[in-house]
Amino acid sequence: MPELIFIIGPARSGTHLVASTLNRALPNATYLAEINEFWLKYSIPGQDKVDPKFLTTEYLNKIRVEFLTLAGNAELIIEKTASNSLRIGFIKALFPNASLIFLHRDGLQVVKSVLKKQKGNINKISNSKTVSLIQRFTLLFSRIKAKFLKIKVTPKNLFLLCKENMANVLNILNLKNDVHWGPKFCSKKSRSQILHPEIYAFMQWGACTQSINDSMVGLHDKSDYLSLNFEDVIKDHRNSAAELNSFLAIDSVIFDIDISADTDVKPKDLEFYTILKQLSHSFEEKECR
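Now predict its structure.
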């Protein structure tokens, strides 16, 4: 069995930063980023959760083989898919010995970042420079190409790939506001009733964060996972790099972070700033009990 590292966190919580940093630090690793097409095959229809009653030994063995085949039977695999924050038990059942790295981020920061993403802004904390329209399309096409090479070429899969990325094109051109972007934390019917992007992004962050916190309670051996706070990574990336190096028993992790990047969220940034701030405080208080 290869060594596996899963980077798990809500969408826009810093998982890209950590995963890409590890990918540079571990040049012999195979990096699987946002392989939603693979995981959706085993999820509840219309959601990113997994029904535990289907997780028989035979079924898990089948999925395990398919995953390792997708990774080219590599000896070291880094996987980062935001929706995995809703199926951590499934990941742990598949790969009991995998290393899990959890990311936590302030809810309002996540909402602000999600709104930027929906408008086609692909800026990351490691690169906060202005990104041109051409650069956005170039990145989009590179992602489409990478996904095309990973899927089984069938009419259905090609149609789904085109459908998914047509929405991305419209987002970049500001012709469509994809309110329901990101991990599907509830049924399609329930999601359709959440019409405001800020409310949806906050509820999504809350569901993913709650799932992570619940899973951490259930993981009795703390040597199996590392928990990182996005704000701590930004404020003291050297210490966060040291934590990663210690956890993975390596010495090559170095963060490349633009220290001028603005991570503050101001009242003018969000229409429902006051309400979401209060809900965020309530969430934090609940977790501290």
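The chain is about 50% helix and 10% strand.
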